[in-house]
Design goal:
This protein is an alpha/beta fold and 256 residues long. Helices cover 34% and strands 16% of the residues. The chain is built from nine helices and ten strands. The chain is globular, with a radius of gyration of 17 Å. The model has no long low-confidence stretch (mean pLDDT 97). The structure holds 2-phosphoglycolic acid. 2-phosphoglycolic acid (PGA) binds next to loops. The site of 2-phosphoglycolic acid (PGA) has 7 residues, from loops.
Amino acid sequence: MEIIIQPTPEAATKIAARLVASVIQTKPAGVLGLATGSTPLRLYRELVEMKLDWSKLTTFNLDEYVGISPQHPQSYHSFMWENLFQHVNVATKNVNIPDGLAKDIPGFCARYENKIAATGGIDLQLLGIGTDGHIGFNEQTSSLASRTRIKTLTPQTRQDNARFFGGEEKVPHHVITMGIGTILEARQCLLLAFGKNKARAIAEAVEGPITSMNPASALQQHPKVTVCLDEESAAELKLQDYYRYVYDHKPDWQTI
Ligand code: PGA
């Protein structure tokens, strides 16, 4: 894992944006795995400003709430169109987001997995992290080999996301999420975390044992993960100084 600690979320986001841009420029017909939530918002703004060519890219989103329509203002469909897709030249047919209204959820999930495989697999998977260490909506004790499926949100996650819905009671109980096994098959992962409420989850994910009690810790088994942090989210890492030292001495030929 490469751990990049920056003074602010803005600075960490700039580095993350460079990484995403380099993947898009190197492989214009590549496949991006995308995330929602507060964390990637700045990143999406940066990417829009970079005026990259999205016309041949395919995208797969990590997750979606079950039981709400794509038009619902809090759906991840709405989030993605509002914050990214409407501002770039992505082809609508190449955008994939789980269908929260799928009648046959297991069938839909199997087709989602097949579609990821048929495109050749995800080149770069963008990830946020929950305060409990979830990635996608793989809550604690999710199988580390899990595939796309329905999950029940924890009360903590529903509480964390209540701010978007204007009340916890309005947050759906179920979601469709790529599995941890699905995420681990991406060729590269980029995890972003900002703020002190993520510090514990980050420390456990990076330096703790690999355990389904912190689903992000499964990324320790992935060969190519970059973690972009601000000071606050990095605060509980024991080897902070080492990560800074490594980044400061990164060989010139190792681009982001
Ligand atoms: P956040 O959510 O970016 O809104 O903090 C992250 C997550 O739950 O994965």
